[in-house]
Amino acid sequence: MKVFVNGEPRDVxxxxxxxxxxxxxxxxxxxxxxxxxxxxxxxxxWETTALAHADRIEVLTxxxxx
Length: 66
Fold this sequence. Notes:
The protein is mainly beta. It contains one helix and five strands, in the order ββαβββ.
């Protein structure tokens, strides 16, 4: 199925979770947030939140600097 990850189309298998998409985007374990269709997904729900066709997921990573 096709989803949009950070605005880019991507083909993923049915049942792909938010956690799997986050892991494919960044190796960071802290400072990461995910939003699915403009709604923040709590980290505790990443593993159990499955994506559907045409979902939009944004993965954000905090960076330090000035």
